[in-house]
Design goal:
The chain is α+β, with helices and mostly antiparallel strands. The protein has two domains: 110 residues, RNA polymerase II/Efflux pump adaptor protein, barrel-sandwich hybrid domain (OB fold (Dihydrolipoamide Acetyltransferase, E2P), Beta Barrel); 216 residues, 2-Layer Sandwich (Chloramphenicol Acetyltransferase), CATH 3.30.559. It has a six-stranded mixed beta sheet with strand order 9-17-16-15-12-13, sandwiched between helices. The chain has a five-stranded mixed beta sheet with strand order 7-2-4-5-14. Helix 6 packs across helix 7 and helix 6 packs across helix 8. The longest helix is centred in the last third of the chain and has 17 residues.
Length: 428
């Protein structure tokens, strides 16, 4: 039976997505779970899998179109099935992939129906010529593009008024620096500075915020304005490094574990005893989640992405490691799947690999807390009247004071310390 595929909601605050490209054409067969299209959200490009199998009978949205969530984007049905698009849109089905009502519809079989979503016209691309009859050498054009210089504002001194490299560099002040004559002792003269070569133009650049940065700014502003944050820092002993090295000695290089893998498992086990930190605010209610889904912040081009290890408390450490490795690789390639980024209930932000001793993070709404993890450092440690070198790691929890308080958050960190400082049981 034919069904609509809708623009999915792939994030907490997603309102629309851009359909980057279709991976199936009309008339092609698709199986449940196969990738149908790539959708660009504020955070990343996500591969959207089909929730049903059949024949792609109609693509309702052109590549490049921005589409609100819930809008029909495709029709999947039987090869010989007669489908009336108007009736299908007017008869929504439940569940993912089902159709939603629309104000526009086409009558008759799908093959002759008009798309219910208007196509977005492609942006006109600029041609190789320059407006206004401006002439410039290829090198000058490249330099102007890299420096953000408008060639129409320059006067060319080359043949026929052609703009050259020298025209771009001309007139820029030398940055010699140094003392003014009045600052010198009597009888001391400055040696004239010879300008060996003109410096490249230093131009102020302006660029619009990219969509990931807009989304991060919007959500973090909302978080800091609406969530009463408080912060607690704990210093942990760090036997993780030696245990990790021993485990990795038995594993192939492509399967070796990271500190993040241990952190995700330890945090998930600690959350079992502190459900208030595995919760969300929805209206006037506190929703304590049944599942413990630990998100890990990943640096990607243009911003951050939160990949999610579902049911982390129930999974063995090697499975957590394999899942995170795959999700992080897809995130950095810009090819995440919808299940990679959905449903986090607690987030870890680890900057230890960047030699950061300690930092605080902003809560990722609608979650109630986030853990900021610093580097494992060798530091002087006082023990039984003696000073020795030991490995220590600092982590700071940012928590929502509407949901929890300082005492509970501190006890959560103590519980986390027990798991991290006796890490062998994390692998049992």
């Amino acid at each position: 039976m034919a069904a609509m595929v809708n623009m999915p909601k792939l994030g907490f605050d997603m309102a629309e997505g851009t359909l980057v490209r279709w991976l199936r054409a009309e008339g092609e067969e698709i199986k449940k779970g196969e990738v149908l299209a790539e959708i660009e959200t504020d955070k990343a490009t996500v591969e959207v899998e089909s929730s049903l199998g059949g024949i792609v009978r109609k693509l309702l949205v052109e590549a490049g179109a921005s589409v609100p969530i819930g809008t029909p984007i495709a029709v999947i049905g039987g090869r010989d099935e007669q489908i009336n698009l108007a009736e299908l849109i007017g008869k929504p089905e439940k569940g993912e992939g089902a159709g939603a009502p629309s104000s526009e519809s086409g009558a008759g079989p799908v093959g002759r129906a008009e798309a219910t979503v208007p196509a977005v016209a492609a942006r006109p691309e600029g041609g190789p010529g320059l407006p206004g009859g401006v002439r410039a050498s290829p090198l000058a054009r490249k330099m102007a593009e890299e420096s953000g210089i408008d060639l129409q504002t320059l006067k060319g001194t080359g043949p026929g008024g052609r703009i050259t490299k020298r025209d771009l560099q001309a007139g820029q002040p030398a940055h010699a620096g140094g003392l003014a004559p009045a600052d010198l002792a009597p009888g001391v003269r400055l040696t004239p500075v010879r300008r060996a070569e003109a410096l490249p133009a230093r131009i102020e650049r302006r660029a619009p915020l990219k969509r990931p940065r807009q989304a991060i700014g919007r959500r973090m502003t909302e978080s800091k304005q609406q969530i009463p944050h408080f912060y607690i820092t704990h210093e942990f002993m760090a036997p993780l490094m030696s245990l990790r090295a021993r485990i990795n000695a038995f594993l192939p290089e492509q399967e070796r574990m990271t500190i993040n893998d241990f952190l995700v498992k330890a945090v998930a086990l600690a959350l079992l005893d502190f459900p208030n930190l595995n919760a969300s605010i929805q209206g006037n209610e506190v929703v304590t989640h049944g599942s413990i889904n630990v998100g890990v912040a990943v640096a990607v081009e243009g911003g951050l992405l939160n990949v999610v290890c579902q049911e982390a408390d129930l999974k063995p450490l090697r499975l957590i490691s394999a899942e995170l490795r795959g999700m992080i690789a897809r995130a950095r390639e810009g090819k995440v799947r919808s299940q990679d980024v959905e449903g986090s209930t607690f987030t870890i932000s680890n900057m230890g690999m960047l030699e950061v001793e300690n930092f605080i993070a902003i809560i990722n709404p609608p979650e109630a807390a986030i853990l900021a993890v610093g580097s494992i450092l060798e530091v002087p440690v006082a023990e039984k009247g003696e000073v020795r070198i030991g490995e220590r790691m600092k982590a700071t929890i940012s928590a929502d004071h509407r949901v929890t308080d300082g005492s509970e958050a501190a006890r959560f960190l103590q519980s986390l310390a027990r798991h991290l400082e006796e890490p062998l049981h994390l692998v049992i």
